[in-house]
Amino acid sequence: MFKGIVKRIVATSVVAASVFLAVVFLGIAIFHAISLMTTPLGASAITFGLFALVALIVALVFLKGESHDEEDEEDAPDGLIGKLIHIVRERPIIGAVGGLGAAFLLLRNPALAAIVASMVAERKMDQGGYAKRRRR
């Protein structure tokens, strides 16, 4: 199970990096093609405008069906943890990005990671989670 998750994460990372590089090199190719007809400054402005237009069209197409109803706002819980869980359930990509950001933060600061680990272990000890599993 863990190997399957790791394989999916690696495959997703490779695809995302490939798409990123494809878009960058498409922009470079468009820039060089346009710079044959105009100045480099004009070519960069036209390339920027083209990519901004594509981004606007993609955003309008994907966000067209979304409407912010008041019923959705009423379903949201009050507490901070409840709101985070609600956001992760409603928008899993935002949750994944937030989780990766938190993991990066914890990896960059080992002292903070130790504090979080001790809090989780303390909570487990309070709930009796470790005592039930331990055999005597």
Low-confidence spans: pLDDT under 50, at least 5 residues?
none
The counted number of beta strands is 0
Overall mean confidence score, pLDDT: 78
Rounded radius of gyration (Å): 23 Å
Morphology call: elongated
Major sheet description: none
Give me the secondary-structure category. Answer: mainly alpha
Helix coverage percent:
over 70%
Q: Please work out how many helical segments DSSP would assign.
A: 7
User: What separation lies between the terminal Cα atoms?
Assistant: 30 Å
Question: What proportion strand?
Answer: under 5%
H-E order: HHHHHHH
Question: What does this molecule look like?
Answer:
The structure is a single chain. The protein is mainly alpha-helical. Helices cover 85% and strands 0% of the residues. The chain contains 7 helices and no strands. Helix 1 (2-35) packs across helix 2 (40-63). It starts with a helix and ends with a helix. The relative contact order is 0.03.
